[in-house]
From TrEMBL:
Name the record gives this protein: Iron chelate uptake ABC transporter family permease subunit
UniProt keyword annotation of Transport present: yes
Primary localization class, coarse: membrane
UniProt similarity note: Belongs to the binding-protein-dependent transport system permease family. FecCD subfamily.
Species of origin: Microbacterium helvum
Amino acid sequence: MGARRRVAVLVVAIVAVVLAVVVSLSFGSRPVSVAQIVDGIASWLRGETAADIGAIAVQSRVPRTVLALLAGAALALAGALMQAITRNPLADPGILGVNTGAALAVVIGIAFLGTSSALGYLGLALVGAFVTAFFVYFVGSVGPGGTTPIKLALAGAATTAALSSLVAAILLPRQAVMDEFRYWQIGNVGRADWETMGIVVPVIAVGVVIALLCATSLNALALGDDVAVGLGVHVGRIRLVAAVAGVTLCAAVTAVAGPIGFVGLMVPHAVRLLVGSDQRWLLPLSALGGAVLLTLSDTIGRVIGAPGEVEAGIITAFLGAPVLIAIARRTRLRGM
């Protein structure tokens, strides 16, 4: 893959992010004009409330747009990491159960422990995500042949189904607060606020930095463990560090947006088709692609659900299901 093409893809991705932001601020239950976007953002930067109702709508959309960008980038980056360290084309925070494990921990905290703070959500999500990741890896490594992509995918799917049932069992008897809990069952960015993001953004930033620092070693890992060791890479250490970064990114997003699936599955595959498997390009471009995908998914949900909204997690699942089927068919055919 030529460097010129990769640079072109990078430029297109950056432009796409800008356009996604403009679309997110423009459309919703009430469309606004470019002038109202400028007025709303200018007033927001000055710390003032805009006078025009359209500009006020823009100001209300700024936090959720920022969260959609951050969450999409983190989930896509986590998916790329998981695919790299497991060499599994089906690896994704949702399919491997990490998102659902984090959501279950948060739901348990809300229902039984009285947790209500963003810091409490983050701590519970981290515990749930890491416990689930360890469990899925353990189950996927049991039996002859050790850990294989198919065994990991099956273990993740079974774990996701079991944990989703537990989430539903906790939610159903609590009809009075069903709207509050539904947020942790589907995934949405509509409840974004600056205080919450101020807590999770540093965690996401650390995860992103660690992920990008792992890129060169992950390239060596793709050549096989023996070759990677010959190149001076500590295979076990790099897998552990990359896994911790990926799970941390998933947990941070789940703590503020609930379990949003398929972003980490779709985006790395699309980017890989465009720029190849060089992790130095794949990881940052996946982050940009994930930001675009989730931001547009949130906007689509607001438009088609007006005057309410359809959760972004439903839109990404609707878009991601055909991709999952296509990947599964291709993987099966290769194995025959």
